[in-house]
Write a structure and sequence with these properties.
This is 8-amino-7-oxononanoate synthase. By secondary structure, this protein is α/β, with parallel strands linked by helices. Helix content is about 45%, strand content about 15%.
Length: about 375
């Protein structure tokens, strides 16, 4: 009886076409995945460079596990920060062009604890309307008042910065937005925040590995105060990083609750990160191929009348609108041999359900054309 409200909440989500379930998927060599015994071309993975199964990541992971053990034993502030961390963080700071870097367990953990560590009730947070939920939850945990500026509307941000004179202001944005695949005018964004004396935090989760010098992100060299990125997407491993000044990193070691209260990453994951940081700078050809495939897909979808919003990246949304239609299209494509999962509210706004087509350097032009042909058949039904 006391749990009836749980069932009611699930039924309400199901009625809206928003109920989720976990499906078991066996990992094949990317870009394939096996679902219920069927091998599908995977257009839903964040493994943008196809590194998740790379033998060097597995080999280096085993090497770190042999050196430091299977488990990390404690939080980094107790006895979990072994020499492998120093090696990886030094390499990361050099590649990001920052004074220091700090490795954490996940992007969610990094963002959730970040604003709790930095901001408080006397501050003001200005954030793009489409920043990741982890940043929003972090702002709520901080107790800081906040305002959301219209997506990628830097004129709106400039107005809010003008109104906030005299306050300590934190500005939150992403370099590549995870659901729309677009990006802000980063140079202007940095200029606006610097002129206003605001503290700029950039989420580089979907840019790290794919864009920028040596694939290290669009933020490199721009002068943002703090950059967060993840290793679990293009870099094929697990975990996240914060990169900035030495002073800022030392502050976060003392005040970031996610670092203080979480057990450290297992050595295997850290070894895989170390290997990916060695590989990614050398993968210019793969990044070029990925960019070409993304352009072909966007052009093909737009020619067929599909809205891909303002995508400029390997994330190509196919806007459908209503949840039921989006689920039907996803199911149809799975029947045709493609995994293209439906993204629905509350992840995106009501009326903006979509297929989030995520491309990888391991995809082929033939697979892109196969997907487009399947959509042609859908349109003819």
């Amino acid at each position: 009886m006391k749990q009836d409200w749980l069932q009611e909440a699930l039924q309400a989500r199901a009625a809206k076409g928003q109920k989720r379930t976990l499906r078991t998927m066996d990992c094949c060599q990317h870009p394939f995945v096996e679902v219920e015994g069927r091998k599908l071309v995977n257009f839903s993975s964040n493994d943008y460079l196809g590194l998740a199964a790379h033998p060097l990541l597995v080999e280096r992971g085993h090497a770190f596990a042999q050196a430091y053990g299977a488990g990390s034993r404690a939080s980094r502030l107790v006895c979990g920060s072994h020499p492998g961390y120093l090696k990886v963080e030094a390499k990361l700071a050099r590649l990001k062009g920052t004074e220091a870097a700090l490795v954490l367990n996940s992007g969610w953990q990094a963002n959730l604890g970040l604003l709790a560590a930095l901001a408080g009730p006397k501050d003001l947070v200005l954030m793009d309307k489409l920043v990741h939920n982890s940043l929003i939850q972090g702002v709520l945990a901080s107790g800081a008042p906040f305002k959301r500026f219209r997506h990628n509307d830097l004129d709106h941000l400039a107005q809010l910065l003008q109104e906030a004179q005299g306050k300590r202001v934190f500005v939150l944005a992403e370099t590549i937005y995870s659901m729309d695949g677009d990006q802000p005018d980063l140079e202007r964004l940095v200029g606006l925040t610097k002129a206003a004396g605001a503290f700029l935090i950039l989420d580089e989760a979907h840019g790290t590995g794919v864009f920028g010098p040596e694939g290290m992100g669009l933020s490199v060299g721009l002068g943002a105060d703090l950059v967060m990125g993840t290793f679990g997407k293009a870099l094929g491993s697990f975990g996240a990083y914060l990169a900035g000044s030495e002073l800022l990193v030392q502050y976060l070691i003392n005040f970031h609750p996610g670092l203080i209260y979480s057990t450290a990453l297992p050595p295997f994951a850290l070894g895989a990160i170390d290997a990916s940081l060695e590989l990614v700078p050398k993968m210019g050809a793969e990044r070029e191929h990925l960019g070409h495939l993304s352009q072909v897909l966007r052009q093909g979808l737009r020619q067929r009348g599909y809205d891909t919003l303002a995508s400029q990246s390997q994330i190509v949304p196919l806007l459908v609108g209503e949840e039921a239609q989006c689920l039907a299209l996803s199911a149809y494509l799975e029947d045709q041999g493609f995994l293209a999962l439906a993204i629905r509210p509350p992840t995106v706004e009501p009326g903006k359900a979509r297929l989030r087509l995520a491309l990888s350097a391991t995809h082929t032009l033939e697979q892109i054309n196969g997907l487009l042909s399947a959509l042609d058949r859908w349109g003819a039904l």
